[in-house]
Amino acid sequence: PVVDKEVDFANYFCTYAFLYHQKEMLSDRVRMNAYYDSIFRNKHHFNGKTVLDVGTGSGILAIWSAQAGAKKVYAVEATKMSEHARALVKSNNVENVVEVIEGSMEDVVLPEKVDVIISEWMGYLLLRESMFDSVICARDRWLKPNGVMYPSHARIWFAPIRSGLVERKENDLEEVMDDWYNFVEDTKDTYGVDMGVLTQPFSAEQRRYYLQTSLWQNLHPNQIIGTAAIIKEIDCLTATVNDISEVRSNFSSSITMENTSLCGFGGWFDVHFRGRKDNPAQQEVELTTAPSKDAGTHWGQQVFLIHPPSCVTEGDNVSVEFLMYRSKENHRLMEVELGCEVRQSSGNLLPAFKSKFHVE
Amino acid sequence: PVVDKEVDFANYFCTYAFLYHQKEMLSDRVRMNAYYDSIFRNKHHFNGKTVLDVGTGSGILAIWSAQAGAKKVYAVEATKMSEHARALVKSNNVENVVEVIEGSMEDVVLPEKVDVIISEWMGYLLLRESMFDSVICARDRWLKPNGVMYPSHARIWFAPIRSGLVERKENDLEEVMDDWYNFVEDTKDTYGVDMGVLTQPFSAEQRRYYLQTSLWQNLHPNQIIGTAAIIKEIDCLTATVNDISEVRSNFSSSITMENTSLCGFGGWFDVHFRGRKDNPAQQEVELTTAPSKDAGTHWGQQVFLIHPPSCVTEGDNVSVEFLMYRSKENHRLMEVELGCEVRQSSGNLLPAFKSKFHVE
Ligand SMILES: Nc1ncnc2c1ncn2[C@@H]1O[C@H](CSCC[C@H](N)C(=O)O)[C@@H](O)[C@H]1O
Ligand SMILES: Nc1ncnc2c1ncn2[C@@H]1O[C@H](CSCC[C@H](N)C(=O)O)[C@@H](O)[C@H]1O
Questions:
Q1: Three-class DSSP category at B35
Q2: pLDDT tens digits for range B115-157
Q3: Measuring CA to CA, which of A270, A352, B66, B107 is 20 to 30 A from A85?
Q4: What are the phi and psi torsion angles at A43 (to 5°)?
Q5: If we measure between CA atoms, which residue out of B242, B233, B237 comes closest to residue B269?
Q6: Per-residue pLDDT at B289
Q7: Does residue A134 line the site of ligand 1, with CB under 6 A?
Q8: Contact across the interface for A88 and B193, Cβ inside 8 Å
Q9: What pLDDT does residue A10 have?
Q10: For chains A and B, what is the number of CB pairs under 8 angstroms?
Q11: Which of A160, A335, A359 has its CA nearest to residue A248?
């Protein structure tokens, strides 16, 4: 797809130019601990090595890499955040090692290939933002044949959930539609124009907003009502853009909770720092964004509501068809097509559900 | 300035493509009544005439023009809202008169010149969105020499106000900064990186957000504490882009309330429908967005906070230097430079205030 760079800056990069947003990421303990541990428990990957940090933001991963003994770190950042990264590098006394380069990874030319590529490229549901494209581009151009990727692996998970949100959203939608009908009446009476013909498109617009857009949530583990499935696995060393631009998975999940309500699905990801087969991590580290009572992340989970909810119970089987691809209008956003069907343990099939969702 | 059309769509036009947003405008009674009255109380301007509606949105002004007897209405709309406008035109039985044209006004070619240009182009503080540029362009190309502009005149107003917002925003800012200091300490202790060097830029970013961005408010008339001044007058028939791309005004305002607090300024606009000198309105109509107890509009007022507030009283004189120009990064947004000084009736001068603001 042809990406208009200026539009991409207006839509995407703009948020990263705010320290406020970088701080949000820097305050995510789960994220920070995972990257910190991955580096400092695997110093052999960094000590005396050359490193490329794709999208350095504030510069944090580049600075840690230097502190872990890297010989040279190239820290590439597309936005003006690069200037703050440069200041931070300097005030932390690693300016002899870390070179901050302002530019798109796709355009930057390095003087050498590197031993390690480190990057925090993960968006909601792993792939939103499509930033891994830039990591792939960097890898194919700048990673030595025996180089290591940080993180090395990534997975997307999906599980059935219960949630009060369906009802809430359905109520919101109903209220908005009631208000619309009043508006149509008023406009006819007061201003002599009949807006009735717009009822259908307005309703579609609002349904899309309330029911067909996935929601950011920090789910409680007890909202997960069935077995979770891995719907995508990525080897960061070998994945191509083609491999990640579509995620298709048919899977089934067993309900593990008695007499509950299937209200939708939660999606999340984890990434692993394992080094590579012939140069493995000394200590493997995992960063998971799964539902958790006290180790939530700023990524939360993405929730896809199904409506109306279905009554389900332990032993019921939910079969799911999942398809995710990039939005035509904005390659950094995703569209999801989701179908599901519940087979009760009696063998009885509940009415199937099928809908499109937008991950925005 | 060179405007990237794609970026302009991503930043600006996108919101207008939602019926939800059009409905907000269509539910603004003050706005609707003014345009409705301006048309139906001045049918002589429409009956048997050709009309151009610049930015027709849902098509409302075009439909009214047809209902008022127009022979032909060209209804130009840049976004896909044009399709809804077309449906509305049809279902209101004016498709023989109203022709909906999807496209930017700047690009559209009409088969004839028109007698009337009608448009609802006003943004916050009148000029935000810079949509009047498109009306000027339409006027210079498509209005007959004796044509009429709807509205015909516009003014921007500015007045000193009191408000609890300064304190609130100052508190918010303080909280955010306290949190920042904790973050800096944490990051040093836990992750070995000293973020201190970013304190100044973070603080600047947050001050900009909390204190140097104008705020949307529906002010109560009793929050106005001094005489209001007109800081710009526009004759829609003759104004050029040059005339409106900068607004500069030095004025003074007398405080009209006893023992109160000067917390900032409120800015708003009004527009008038007067026809033209040689073809005047039969009944002049005004649309005002001034602070009002029960005739508020979706435009509200724009509030510029000054901090700290000054104690003022009846008879004090506030002299103000106001300058507004377009943002370099986005020609539809504005930057304001505001200076003010209070001379008490005793002759005593209070410390002057000067700041930049962003109208976003
Ligand atoms: N193609 C590209 N080239 C350069 N920088 C990019 C990029 N795509 C995304 N980025 C930048 O990558 C950053 C991702 S956020 C992560 C920031 C930092 N590494 C940290 O872990 O805290 C953003 O600052 C974004 O502007
Ligand atoms: N240069 C341009 N060309 C065409 N349409 C434009 C335009 N600039 C703004 N618009 C459109 O003008 C509309 C302004 S909002 C007003 C809509 C309608 N006339 C009403 O009064 O309810 C938006 O729908 C916007 O998309």
A1: helix
A2: 999 999 999 999 999 999 999 999 999 999 999 999 999 999 9
A3: A270
A4: -60, -25
A5: B233
A6: 98
A7: yes
A8: yes
A9: 80
A10: 102
A11: A335
Residues 58-77 of B with CB under 8 A from A: 58, 60, 63-64, 67
Task: For residue A329, indicate whether it is catalytic.
Answer: no
**Nearest 10 degrees: CA dihedral of B268, B271, B277, B280?**
-150
* Catalytic residue from among B99, B102, B112, B129: B129
A54 near A83, Cβ under 8 Å?
Answer: no
CA separation, residue B301 to residues A156, B33, B64, B126, B306 (Å): 47, 19, 28, 10, 16
B10 touches chain A (CB under 8 A): yes
Which ligand approaches the C-alpha of residue A82 most closely?
Answer: 1
* pLDDT surpassing 60 at residue A338: yes
Chain B residues whose beta carbon lies within 8 Å of the beta carbon of residue A18: 205
CB B125 within 8 A of CB B324: yes
pLDDT in tens, A172-204: 999 999 999 999 999 999 999 999 999 999 999
Average pLDDT over residues A92-112: 98
Pocket of ligand 2 (CB under 6 A): B 13, 16, 25-26, 55-58, 60-61, 76-79, 81, 104-106, 120, 131, 134
Rg (CA), chain A: 23
Distance B273 CA to ligand 2 centre (A): 19
Q: A2 pLDDT exceeds 70?
A: no
| Secondary element (H or E) of residue B130 | none
Residue A1 has pLDDT above 80, yes or no: no
CB count, 10 Å around CB of A144?
14
Nearest-CA distance from A17 to chain B in Å? Answer: 10
Q: Does B31 touch chain A (CB under 8 A)?
A: no
| Contacts with B82 (C-beta within 8 Å, 6 or more apart), sequence order | B56, B100, B101, B102
Contact B198 A90 (CB under 8 A): no
Q: How confident is the model at residue B29 (pLDDT cuts 50, 70, 90)?
A: very high
Catalytic residue among A99, A129, A321, A329: A129
Interchain pair A27, B91: CB under 8 A: no
Q: Which of A28, A109, A134 to mutate to test the pocket of ligand 1 (most atoms within 8 A of CB)?
A: A134
Cβ distance A266 to A159 under 8 Å? yes
Measured between alpha carbons, how far is A60 from A66 in angstroms, rounded to an integer?
10
Rounded to the nearest 10°, the torsion over CA A136, A125, A251, A213 is -130
* DSSP string across A20-43: HHHHHHHT-HHHHHHHHHHHHT-G
Give me the residue label for tokens 């400092």: A40
Q: What are the backbone dihedrals phi and psi of residue A226, each rounded to the nearest 5 degrees, phi first?
A: -155, 175
Residue-wise pLDDT tens digits, A282-314: 999 999 999 999 999 999 999 999 999 999 999
